[in-house]
Amino acid sequence: MYIRNGGELSMTISGQWHERLEQAIPWGSSTCSKAPSLLPEEPAVIVRGDGCRVWDADGNEYIDFRNGLGPITLGYRFPEVDEAIRRQLDNGIVFGQPHPLEAEVAELLGELVPCAERVRFLKTGGEALAAAIRIARTYTGRDRIVQVGYNGWLNALAGGGPSLPGQRATGSPKGVPAAVSGLHHAVGWNDIGSVERWFDDCGSEIAAVVVAADYAEMEKGASFYPALRELTRKHGALLVYDEIVTGFRIAIGGVQHYFGVVPDMAVFSKGIANGMPLSAYMGSKEVMAACDRGGAVISSTFGGETLSLAASRATIRIYREQDVVGHLWRQGEKLWGGLNERLSAAGLPIRLKGYAPCPAFTLQEGADPAVRDRFFRAAYRNGVSLYNISYVNYSHKDADIAEALERLEQACRETAV
């Protein structure tokens, strides 16, 4: 891989790492969405983060709005969280019995998340959703699942549903038996008519509706969530919220807190521990009893790993004591509103849509999709790291937002040429 260096192209350390990754790992990354697609402008590897900035292996700095694809809500190397991890490291990481941190973090979630009467832990959002689906099937004795949005790779099972964020499978997803895929039904955001039709066709077989918000059109949740709640109750199915992105970001208790519609179960992950690998699946006492002794067996050695739980306890306490979510809204509105003004002034058919803590880059009708890639490349050249769903974190201060807008204004000018 090459970058500009005094007007000349030269081989970089990052490029060497990219070649090694491509040789050793399918996709060149263990996370599909992290594999760089906009080389040479996009950094091939990131080696360090601090606050709201990251650096590649060649020392290039970026004001970061990818935030690890969402988990970095407070900022890289956030002192209180890192210190909590260090303190726990001195006492051990994994034990053969539960650690008190499991109870403490579960209790904190029970205080903040409306549906969380009982809580259990895993490491990733996708596997926690798989656990929620297994619980729903156990509790209801039914097999079918209606899925709204992308619910993680373990649950991207429905033909025609998202195989990755923004990418749709044609037919059954690869590696998924047709018999399994046939039990999962993909429905679009705010398409209550399609959900109703599935219940009309096979309502007595539907165990749950699992719903992840559409980030560009999240405001439609004001009517969509109540409609789903009424429909699932009518037919005896469970309502499960995928709060992996929205939890601790739209509101401290997620979209169920923000919209005031409580599901039977929910999954939280990305915002729960400021980057440490942790997920939580939770719900009412009655429903969660389906994974208690004698119910569905969901078990993982690392579910109670203490470094992530210590990070989560510290992170959640900061959410409670400081106005983190308010900061995400305020700084997001400042940044994305300012960027929309600059995109419009440059005549670019790109807009940020959705709520300020996690908006989506969208194209105006008839626009060439390549323009977004050109803009992202220009942003990287000017030291700003973006993603289709971009985030501010608690470490993005006013000066960082102002500097980012200056850099992005230059990126707009370059893209418009």
Quick description:
The protein is an alpha/beta fold and 417 residues long. Helix content is 39%, strand content 17%.
How would you describe this protein?
The protein is α/β, with parallel strands linked by helices. The protein has two domains: 2-76 and 323-416, Aspartate Aminotransferase, domain 1 (Alpha-Beta Complex); 79-321, Aspartate Aminotransferase, domain 2, CATH 3.40.640. It has helices at residues 13-24, 79-89, 100-112, 125-140, 178-181, 192-202, 221-235, 254-259, 285-288, 306-321, 324-345, 370-381, 398-416; strands spanning 2-5, 8-11, 46-50, 53-56, 61-64, 118-122, 144-148, 162-164, 167-168, 184-187, 206-212, 238-242, 265-268, 279-283, 350-353, 360-363, 384-385. The protein has a seven-stranded mixed beta sheet with strand order 6-14-13-12-11-7-10, sandwiched between helices. It has a four-stranded mixed beta sheet with strand order 3-4-5-17. The two termini are 25 Å apart.
